[in-house]
Amino acid sequence: MFEYITGSVEFVGPEYIVLDHNGIGYQLLTPNPYMFRKSEQQIRVYTYQYVREDILALYGFQSREERALFMKLISVSGIGPKGALAILAAGQTKQVVQAVEQEDEKFLVKFPGVGKKTARQMILDLKGKLNDLVPDALPDLFSAPDAFEKSERVSVELDEALEALKALGYAEREIARVVPDLIKEALSTDQYIKKALQLLLNGKR
């Protein structure tokens, strides 16, 4: 298994990024691809290789802790890689840990693909096992975004964010409910995704 790959980001899409390392492009599925920027700058992405009979995929994370949480999540019956990515994309690590510890099923079922049965399984499997992942090593994806000047790119960035939400498993009807709040501001794709996830997890569904 690859521990990490260092390279430059050549492509950013709704589901994955392409990291160029010495002329080889690695397709890395990530929780929020738009956290990355296409650039020649060298970055390090921690990886996890997922292998099943019909699947061979490489997942990328910004930290070892983020990867560790992903691995714990996919160990739960009923949560696959896509579901785990959706939970990580929300950036609510502390709230996820708190929900598991306090057996708060109502919060957990807000994630796409997580029903009551899966939420209960998360609690049974992970309670008491996530405290080491709470420290500040994981970035707070809901920090207040810096305002920047509106531009013609806004519609493109909003469209990219909506596609990323669909890729995470959110239904179009759920996404449609938060769009009115999103179009009020001019944000980057990454910031639109953060704001949308915040609205979805806070009950605007």
TrEMBL record:
Gene3D superfamilies: 5' to 3' exonuclease, C-terminal subdomain, DNA helicase RuvA subunit, C-terminal domain, Nucleic acid-binding proteins. Pfam families: HHH_5, RuvA_C, RuvA_N. It comes from the Bacteria. Keywords: Cytoplasm, DNA damage, DNA recombination, DNA repair, DNA-binding, Hydrolase. SMART domains: HhH1. Residues 152-205 are annotated as: Domain III. Has three domains with a flexible linker between the domains II and III and assumes an 'L' shape. Domain III is highly mobile and contacts RuvB. Belongs to the RuvA family. Homotetramer. Forms an RuvA(8)-RuvB(12)-Holliday junction (HJ) complex. HJ DNA is sandwiched between 2 RuvA tetramers; dsDNA enters through RuvA and exits via RuvB. An RuvB hexamer assembles on each DNA strand where it exits the tetramer. Each RuvB hexamer is contacted by two RuvA subunits (via domain III) on 2 adjacent RuvB subunits; this complex drives branch migration. In the full resolvosome a probable DNA-RuvA(4)-RuvB(12)-RuvC(2) complex forms which resolves the HJ. This is Holliday junction branch migration complex subunit RuvA. It comes from Ectobacillus antri. The lineage of its organism: Bacteria, Bacillati, Bacillota, Bacilli, Bacillales. The gene is ruvA.
